[in-house]
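Quiz preparation item.
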């Protein structure tokens, strides 16, 4: 099983997750394959060879960090939206187009009555229902499966891990939003914004405000990069100064590639289905012989 040890307080061994719809298009169904556990929760993945030692035959891992030694840069996976942080927030505002800068300043003024508190982790519990409801609606609208209890638990643990930071926002002493980010090795990964649903708050563009305040804080604390992660969300491009491509790792048979319309040049490791069947038959035979020997051993004795 792959070991997740980049973002949590302790190393975690998680089972590969079964899937039968295309990562690029959930409407496309095909043979069963396996994906890296909870890849959509983690800011990015640094896949290693040892993670693949006991992996199933057909695996499709998206969202791999470009610095990973294995995998191929993919033009099918949305790139990360990245900000190269200057040493002051005003300098960042000078880096964005004039019209966008005007919009950002308007949002900052509109939300200036909000009180902001750092690292009040108990607010995650208060905002958790807002977050899970939002994720459920998003998955439903995109035709994706709903998250399991285990996946939600993993997400909860990540939000409370050693490198996690929160910004809580209050309107007249009432909690209205919580931003969660991971701060590690000079990079801030913006992983979630949890907001109370209301028409009044919808008009405030609080998601924009939360990111802007976190960028401001990151610049003050001399962080080097602000990563808004990947995903087909138009708002991310408004903040970013550049886009960083990601890798994927696909190991599969020709039949699998054909079913999911994956070009051969995108495959990292092509495997032969007949050879796999032969290998599995051999393993099955060895297990049967092992059981037979264990049954005969007491008789010989």
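Solution:
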């Amino acid at each position: 099983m792959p070991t997740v040890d980049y973002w949590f307080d302790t190393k975690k061994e998680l089972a590969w997750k079964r899937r039968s719809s295309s990562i690029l298009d959930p409407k496309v169904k095909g043979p069963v394959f396996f994906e890296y556990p909870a890849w959509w929760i983690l800011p990015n993945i640094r896949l290693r060879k040892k993670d693949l030692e006991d992996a199933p035959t057909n695996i499709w891992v998206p969202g791999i960090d470009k610095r990973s030694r294995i995998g191929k840069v993919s033009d099918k996976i949305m790139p990360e939206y990245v900000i190269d942080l200057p040493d002051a927030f005003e300098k960042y505002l000078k880096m964005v187009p004039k019209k966008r800068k005007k919009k950002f300043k308007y949002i900052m003024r509109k939300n200036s009555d909000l009180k902001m508190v750092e690292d009040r982790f108990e607010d995650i519990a208060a905002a958790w229902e807002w977050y899970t409801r939002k994720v459920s609606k998003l998955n439903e609208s995109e035709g994706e499966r709903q998250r399991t209890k285990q996946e939600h638990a993993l997400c909860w643990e990540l939000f409370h891990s050693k490198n996690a930071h929160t910004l809580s926002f209050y309107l007249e002493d009432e909690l209205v939003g919580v931003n969660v980010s991971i701060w590690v090795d000079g990079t801030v990964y913006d992983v979630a914004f949890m907001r109370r649903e209301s028409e009044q708050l919808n008009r405030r563009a609080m998601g924009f405000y939360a990111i802007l305040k976190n960028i401001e804080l990151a610049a003050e604390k001399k962080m080097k990069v602000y990563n808004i992660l990947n995903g087909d969300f138009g708002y991310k491009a408004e903040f970013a100064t550049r886009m960083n491509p990601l890798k994927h790792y696909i190991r599969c048979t020709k039949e699998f590639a054909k079913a999911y319309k994956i070009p051969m040049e995108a495959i990292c490791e092509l495997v032969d289905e007949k050879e796999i069947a032969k290998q599995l038959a051999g393993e099955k035979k060895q297990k049967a012989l092992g059981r037979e020997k264990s049954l005969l051993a007491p008789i010989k004795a």
